[in-house]
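Let's study my pick:
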Amino acid sequence: MTLTKAETQFLHITKTAISGGDLPTEKVDWSAIFTLANQQKLLPIIFEAVRQTDAAGENAALFAAVKKQVISQVLNQVVRSAEFADLYKRLRVAGLHPVLVKGALCSRLYLLKDHRISADDDIYVQDSEFLDCHEQLLAEELTTDTPADELPTADEVSYLKEGSPLYIELHRHLFDSSEDAHDELNHFFADIQPIEMAGFLAMPPHEHLLYLILHAYKHFVSCGIGLRQFCDIGLWAQAYHEQIDWQRLYDQCASVHAATFAAAAFKIARGYLGIEFDLPTPWEASIDVEPMLHDTLCGGVYGSNDYTRLHSSTVTLNAVKASRAGEKSSVLSSIFPKKEYLERRYPYLKKHPYLLPVAWIQRIVHYAGEKRTSMDNSAGGSIKLAKERIELMKMYDIID
């Protein structure tokens, strides 16, 4: 897969924004660049790198409109970061030990930390503190849609606060324990000994880099990932290079079919984003990463650009699960998945498993409703894209 001209220019500009250097000298379609930047949640970072160039004067109306978007996004991030930091301190004062993942830990590695826009803040707590942390969040006037009877077993619970940009995800497990394609990743983090880092409890640098890789891997085998995840991985590897056990990291990734994916992520960070760090043996550096980059730029952050891609995840996840079990995947099993897979969307299945056919019908009706409201969605398109992405996963040794 060859990258398009717009994709190549976007990567060049992103590299300049992250690591410095010269901007492209050829003619640039700035509308296309800013659209890509917004889809990748990199708009403030990209705009900061180009706002004082000649192009800003030549495209004054466009740059003025983008500037308003950037100011809004950055201000929102500043408020969210400040409110989260205050909330986190109160959780600690209450005797709780929430471990921060991603978020502020990654933002501080960027030249302008508030230009790294995040949709939420993720905290991970031991099972013994999960319900206590939930109660404390409610006491802080946050609310959740998760029913009370699901709290004792929920992998994650999301919280909002009225009149605030806060969006918190509280994790009992870092990866979905009901999803066969992801549950095996949880064992790496079962006995984390957190450390103090930038005012938060955090996983040690090695474990956090492993988490960043596996979190990106999880999204890649589902709908897709965003370029910023490669930025996070590269900047973390650069900042904590001496604290990473690179052989152990390779062995851990290889044990869950993620070593080639991780090597590709490192190559993108170093070669296409200009983030410099040594990559010792046994990491492979000769991987063709352009197909992964093209998929990343087409899909947006977490593959959220269109319903066709979102629905294709059912087929790709089924293919990964089948590969792990030494079986052949089936489109039918993707359309009519097992009860365990549907329980999170349709909680009534936990108490009434005999209603599985009803859940199948609900799921199909919901899909049809999305199809009617989206011009970029079709069942055939989802299956076609899923097949293309399965071939991509074979290329990166995720599927045998």
